[in-house]
Amino acid sequence: MVAEVFSKPAASDMKKPLGLRSKMGKWCCHSFPCCRGSGKSNVGTWADYDDSAFEEPRYQVGREDLGKLHRAAWWGKVPRADLIVMLRSTDVNQTDKEKRTALHLASANGNSEIVKLLLDRRCALHAFDSKKRTALIKAVQCQEDECVLTLLEHGTDPNLPDVYGNTALHYAAYNEDKLLAKALLLYGADIEAKNKCGLTPLLLAVYGQKEKMMKFLIKKKANLKAIDKFGRTALILAVCCGSASMVSLLLDQDIDVFCQDKSGKTAMDYAVSSQHNIICQLLSDYEEKQMSKKFPENSNAGTDTLYGLCDSQLPEKKESKDPIKEAQQIQP
């Protein structure tokens, strides 16, 4: 689903701003902040999710494992004339032992000129490597912007999932790469695609605490009611991460706080069990506002009863002082 329609950018149009991005740090593997270990953020849910799809985005390549064309595609140091001669006598779609084509290797390593030559030779756009990833997915994973745009311009399908169920947009969301996410959406990427854990790009962004990407996808009209395979909403995931800022942003979208996951727990249940007092207060205040809108004559109808909370589980509210009464007490 494409939420907004713009003219499709050409790779040449994006070359200059993208060139400012550092290649030495941009593809390092980030671990999800609250998925392992103990503490308030760990509420026993993260073991249900598989993070292995996001480990080692770059190919591990040994020179002895590659044929002549694959070496040229990976290293990109072959003169253009020699490469053209090589392409005339070689099957451009031949694969190595990891099922990688020359297009996979060139795209993953940012050799955009070789990518263009291979595409001119009508190589297979949708060949899968051993993890069922297309060249486009590898280019997005490794944040090789020009290769991504070139592949999209030549008609690569952005919605083909890999063995984990992730599409190119999932990897852009994980990398918090708004530029590539926007390009993928312009070329028809499905903003509601789900991976094998049932995570849409938005849910993945929340799960990984990618707050900027979460804001971006909300602006692109991602479905805030989407649930993963465990029935968890974006709000529940934000609570489980212990992120008060993400919870606040989601509450600003007027979402349903009463949704239960498959274990019957709501966002408030998770907040209470992990003793996130600030989040408890955010949810309680939000519920009070919602109740006052629905029942204006009974606005003080005990939100805590609805959630099964006791006052000790929420931070104490300080009574506001009346300046007029104080002034009267001071006067003789």
Features:
332 residues; mainly alpha; Serine Threonine Protein Phosphatase 5, Tetratricopeptide repeat; 2 domains; ANK repeat; Ankyrin_rpt-contain_sf; Ankyrin_rpt; POTE ankyrin domain family member A-like; Ankyrin_repeat_domain
Report on this structure.
- This protein has 332 residues and is mainly α.
- Helix 12 packs parallel to helix 14.
- The N and C termini lie far apart (72 Å).
- The N terminus is likely disordered.
Oligomer: single chain
Shape: elongated
SSE order: HHHHHHHHHHHHHHHHH
Q: Could you say which structural class the secondary elements and strand pairing correspond to?
A: mainly alpha
Strand portion, in percent? Answer: under 5%
Total helical segments: 17
| CATH homologous superfamily assignment of the largest domain | Ankyrin repeat-containing domain
Report the helical percentage.
Answer: 40-55%
Pfam family, one: Ank_2
Protein name: POTE ankyrin domain family member A-like
Keywords: ANK repeat
InterPro entries: Ankyrin_repeat_domain (IPR050657), Ankyrin_rpt (IPR002110), Ankyrin_rpt-contain_sf (IPR036770)
